[in-house]
Design a protein that fits this description.
Keywords: Disulfide bond, Glycoprotein, Metal-binding, Signal, Zinc. The chain is mostly helical and 610 residues long. Among the domains are: 4-124, no CATH class; 300-426 and 518-594. 58% of the residues lie in helices and 3% in strands. It has helices at residues 4-15, 23-34, 39-69, 73-97, 107-118, 128-146, 160-169, 173-183, 191-207, 213-218, 228-258, 286-289, 300-306, 311-324, 332-337, 373-391, 405-416, 421-426, 439-468, 477-489, 517-537, 552-562, 570-578, 586-602, and strands spanning 149-153, 156-159, 269-270, 353-356, 363-366, 491-492. The protein binds L-captopril and zinc ion.
Length: 610
């Protein structure tokens, strides 16, 4: 998916394995064990490894694309096979890389060796039977999610896209509950496979010298693996009071609408009422929680409809934002090869993703685009990945990734923060820019998506790290999932969960093995990026009204960071754009301060917390 060293390998690694180390590498190791290894040996090794990996990575990406856009028995077999071959190859090189641990090498060589050792998400064990099994499970889980549906009756089945779109707009509690439960039937059969996969990948991780996969995942951030969770706690601490205020207001309003028997005012919020299948973004229930005072907030969904936007036009519009910043247009092949709509008559993985199949310019997105404002944002999110991929395509393979994985997720979102009323008017989607008296409404709309997401972005991997470290075993998978949902989000299951439920599996990134902390980081980083870019663009107004549309100066500053790829620690990349090497949520506090003040007033006399 998004990046080679990190994504392609990562995604594929979810699926793969088997076989032994490639000929070129074993020769290399023979030659070098007998003599003293040198810095020149390390460089030569990296050169061979990168060329060799690249050669296999491209066909593996084609196999994976074919599977994701046409889920069937054969594409699954080929994708699992290629994934296995590739991750086995990478694991072999990762082991080889450790041979240079004590060799004195320059900074870049050291960084590349370290990246190579860390590059697998679900590392395969050396035993070919086990690696093959790991690969099979990975693609099977992926397919189960992608082809999943909920059948109300034998011939009335609903896809996730269909149910999601109902859940965004319906206020019929019984229907919301039915879909919420229905989608979670899909993940019941995933549980045993998931547990088996954890065991296998942990074996692979140990062979690479990691304690377990949890340590491997936490060790990707240019700081010690055990320090990283503390950094997350610090950032969450900056946002938490805000989230609690939002939660308090939203719960009160939902109580008014659905009754306090459905939404008890001293407990977590039932998860089916927040306008999203996973209660991860709440923007779709704006109408239920909006200020009583009449406020004009642009309705992008209605505007797209009124102007007859189709899927391609939505993507073109998003492309033109990037073009206005000075980024080169997307290649012709992007338009030929991307998947914008759910095709008839075959299963596809609808979860949005962005790809660069040859690591050069074979950029594509894969989405089942809905014609809504929400999806208009997702399109910008995906194109952000594509422009990042293209910006670092000159880097050596091991540097073709984002500074940290949160950066990759933040770029398109940063651009989408510039979809302000001023911008919407400029492109003719609305006629007038609402004045400042409407700001609370507009800030509320954004907060329902961005602030509400943050604890969800954090809790998914709090769960996974425990699972991958073996601290939480299969009997407790679901129980601990809901404990964390309660702890961080103040959200609860609307009904008691059956003993065989595996609710984490109903969220794409769990069966697909995509780490999730990246989205938490992205939600912090995008506000930092937005502020810096607005400063560079010379926009002096409040941050929530700033749009960097048309600012080539801002585009250049952004590109300067993007083209670094992973060549430097993320702290350096962050400093390049923002002047500071620290992730910091105080920009979020500034952005939403007027809303926070407003919420605190609304919440007076309410019992907050859960
Ligand atoms: O998975 C995504 C993107 C693809 S990287 C559509 N996101 C997370 C999700 O949907 O859960 C974007 C925000 C969070
Ligand atoms: Zn993304």
């Amino acid at each position: 998916m998004h990046t080679l060293s990190k994504t392609l390998i990562a995604a594929i690694v979810g699926l793969s394995v088997s076989g032994c180390i490639d000929e070129a590498v074993s020769t290399q190791s023979h030659d070098t064990t007998s003599t003293q290894l040198t810095a020149a040996d390390a460089k030569a090794f990296l050169e061979i490894a990168q060329n060799d990996i690249y050669k296999m990575q491209v066909p593996a990406a084609h196999a994976q694309w074919s599977y994701a856009t046409f889920i069937n028995y054969d594409t699954q077999a080929v994708s699992a096979y290629m994934g296995e071959q590739l991750s086995t190859k990478v694991a072999g090189y990762a082991k080889e890389a450790a041979r240079f641990n004590d060799v004195k090498v320059d900074k870049d060589t050291r960084r590349q060796l370290e990246l190579l050792k860390n590059s697998l998400t679900m590392p395969p064990p050396a035993d070919p039977k086990k690696s093959e099994r790991l690969a099979k499970i990975g693609s099977e889980l992926d397919g189960m999610y992608g082809s999943g549906s909920y059948c109300r009756t034998e011939d009335d089945c609903l896809s996730l896209v269909e149910m999601s779109s109902e859940m965004a707009t319906s206020r019929d509690e019984a229907l919301l509950l039915e879909y919420w439960k229905g989608w979670r039937e899909v993940s019941v059969p995933m549980k045993d496979l998931y547990a088996e996969q954890v065991t296998l990948a942990n074996e692979g991780a140990k062979e690479l010298g990691f304690e377990n996969v949890s340590a491997l995942w936490r060790g990707q951030y240019d700081m010690p693996a055990d320090e990283f969770p503390k950094e997350l706690d610090r950032l969450w601490g900056q946002v938490e009071p805000f989230y609690e205020a939002l939660h308090c207001h939203v719960r009160a309003k939902l109580g008014e609408h659905y009754g306090t028997d459905v939404v008890p005012q001293d407990k977590a919020i039932p998860a089916h009422l927040l306008g999203n299948m996973w209660a991860q973004t709440w923007g779709n229930i704006y109408d239920l929680v909006k200020p009583e005072q009449e406020m004009t907030v642009p309705d992008v969904t209605a505007a797209l409809k009124a102007q007859n936007y189709d899927e391609v036009k939505m993507v073109k519009q998003a492309e033109s934002f990037f073009s206005s910043l000075g980024f080169e247009e997307l290649p012709e092949t992007f338009w030929e090869r991307s998947m914008f709509q759910k095709p008839d008559g075959r299963d596809v993985q609808c979860h949005a993703s962005a790809w660069n199949l040859d690591d050069k310019d074979d950029l594509r997105i894969k989405m089942c685009i809905q014609k809504t404002g929400e999806e208009f944002n997702v399109i910008h999110h995906e194109l952000g990945h594509n422009y990042y991929q293209r910006a670092y395509n000159q880097q050596p393979l091991l540097y073709r990734g984002s500074a940290n994985d949160g950066f990759h997720e933040a770029i398109g979102d940063t651009i989408a923060l510039s979809i302000t009323p001023k911008y919407l008017k400029e492109i003719g989607l609305i006629d007038t820019i609402p004045d400042a008296s409407n700001d609370i409404g507009m800030l509320m709309q954004v907060a329902l998506d961005k602030i509400a997401f943050i604890p969800f972005g954090l809790m998914v991997d709090q769960w996974r790290w425990k699972v991958l470290a073996g601290e939480v075993t299969p009997e407790n998978y679901n129980k601990v999932w809901w404990e964390l949902r309660n702890k961080y989000q103040g959200v609860m299951a609307p009904v008691e969960r059956p003993a065989d439920a595996f609710d984490p599996g109903a969220k794409y990134h769990v069966p697909a093995n995509v780490p999730y902390t990246r989205y938490f980081l992205a939600h912090i980083l995008q506000f930092q990026f937005h502020k810096s870019l607005c400063d560079i663009a010379g926009d002096e107004g409040p941050l929530n009204r700033c749009s960097i549309y048309g600012s080539e100066k801002a585009g250049k500053a952004l590109n300067d960071m993007l083209e670094m790829g992973m060549s430097k620690p993320w702290q350096d990349a962050l400093e390049t754009l923002t002047g500071s090497p620290q992730m910091d949520a105080s920009t979020i506090q500034d952005y939403f301060q007027p809303l926070k003040d407003w919420l605190d007033k609304q919440n007076q006399g309410r019992q907050c917390g859960w």
